Amino acid sequence: MPRSPAPRPTRLVMAEAGCRAGRSPEPMLQTCPYLSSVRPGADPHLVYLTDTSGPEAPTGPPPPPTAVFGLVGLDRAIVWQDDAEVLGLLRYAASGPRATGELVTRFGAGRVSAAADRGWLQDPGRLCREYRLVSGEIEVTAHCNWGCVSCPVATDPKPRRTMPMPLFEEIIGKLAAAGAQYVTFQFFNEPTLDRHFVQRLEALAARGMPLALYSNASALTADKIAALQRTGVLKHLIVNIPSAEETEFNVLTGSRHFRHTMGNTEAALAAGLPVQVVVNGVGARLKRNLEGVERHFTPLGAEVYPSLICDRAGELGGEYAQDVHVAGRLTGCGWPVQHVNISVAGDLFLCCNDYYQRETFGHVRDGSIDELMASERAVSLRRKVFGVETAPDDFLCRRCHNQLPDFPGRDFRPIATFG
């Protein structure tokens, strides 16, 4: 469920009377930037792209015959509405704070009060304080044994580092207390190189915390496969195999681990592990390599799919460069409200595309996950991501495809910026 400070009740009549009597300034309201609107049966529908479970759509009952639009918030549930003026109200109050009295005059006290009670209209100071924790993305190691052309590691590898077990155990405890649904060990690294790999699985099992394991499988030995079976923590094993042809594989990964990766992935499938194989690439080469990987692994029981093209917010050039430069107000993204990225040193940072971890908002030992996600620094970052505050020109998200209006897997299409 979304986490948020308890909202204060909105008493419109009393507020207006107090303002007229000069006792207090008139309260302001603004539309929650997390809200998206949908129309019954209209395309494009909202679709959320997830790495571990495929595309997802908002949940909720079918629209009643009288529905004219629906609202979708952090919980991804559609609330159907039969009053088009409610959407007009939310659009009007989306671009900036509006005086409560003005909204009441234009749209009626009943609509304004109902929208405020549901959190669709909020005190401007509350905007972007909510979040919906889905996963903890933990950088258990800060190094990789590949140098893929689709990854910044190829041109600027990081020093070898490993997260100490006591810090990891503290993180897992805090994520469990915050209601995280699963964790990953990923961040431009190879988690099976981790000398604490089996211990980490056991720590997850003790907390009942599932693991989505992203790996190149080059070091996924029989002992590690057995540990995944024994602990039962594996949600999905997602293996990066850009080609089923050895020479092409070596070029794309900067490695000589073709036989290890192929053999270990086959062994994981034979052991009954849920395996997804992702194929990185662009253009005709991706199409050719995808077909080859599908021919090899689909008969063995793996799901095979292409990776979404991404230049890591401008960190990659060449054929992967997307040349994204978003001007004006940013329009929202799911990463800062649904996932907690935690560095090998325990710092919390904005996003999986923040390769250099520039946008941090605390250390895991500074408090609970809820306290850190509700901190002023975290809220300020989310307000920039959602366009409530103006992001600086060099802000990471201005270079990211998640901010493009036509990006098909947007988590949010905020009413303030989409008609």
Key attributes of the depicted protein:
single chain, 419 residues, alpha/beta, nine-stranded mixed sheet, three-stranded antiparallel sheet, 13 helices, globular
Task: Please give a structural write-up.
With 419 residues, this protein is of the alpha/beta class. Helix content is 30%, strand content 14%. The chain contains 13 helices and 15 strands. The chain has helices spanning 12-20, 84-92, 100-107, 109-117, 165-177, 197-207, 222-231, 246-253, 258-270, 283-297, 335-338, 369-373, 376-385, and strands at 28-31, 36-38, 69-72, 78-81, 98-99, 121-122, 135-138, 182-184, 211-215, 234-240, 275-279, 303-306, 339-342, 347-349, 360-363. A 9-stranded mixed sheet has the order 12-11-10-9-8-7-13-14-15. The relative contact order is 0.13.
Walk me through the topology.
Elements: H1 12-20, E1 28-31, E2 36-38, E3 69-72, E4 78-81, H2 84-92, E5 98-99, H3 100-107, H4 109-117, E6 121-122, E7 135-138, H5 165-177, E8 182-184, H6 197-207, E9 211-215, H7 222-231, E10 234-240, H8 246-253, H9 258-270, E11 275-279, H10 283-297, E12 303-306, H11 335-338, E13 339-342, E14 347-349, E15 360-363, H12 369-373, H13 376-385
Parallel strand pairs: 7-8, 7-13, 8-9, 9-10, 10-11, 11-12
Antiparallel strand pairs: 1-5, 1-6, 2-3, 3-4, 13-14, 14-15
Helix pairs in contact: 3-4, 5-6, 6-7
Helix content: 25-40%
Summarize the helix and strand pattern as letters.
Answer: HEEEEHEHHEEHEHEHEHHEHEHEEEHH
Alpha plus pi helix count: 13
Largest sheet: 9 strands, mixed
| Rg over CA atoms | 23 Å
Number of strands: 15
Q: In what order do the strands lie side by side in the largest sheet?
A: 12-11-10-9-8-7-13-14-15
Query: SS-based structural class?
Result: alpha/beta
Q: Note the gap between the termini.
A: 27 Å
Low-confidence stretches: 5-21
How much β-strand is present in the residues?
5-15%
Q: For the residues shown, what is the average pLDDT?
A: 91
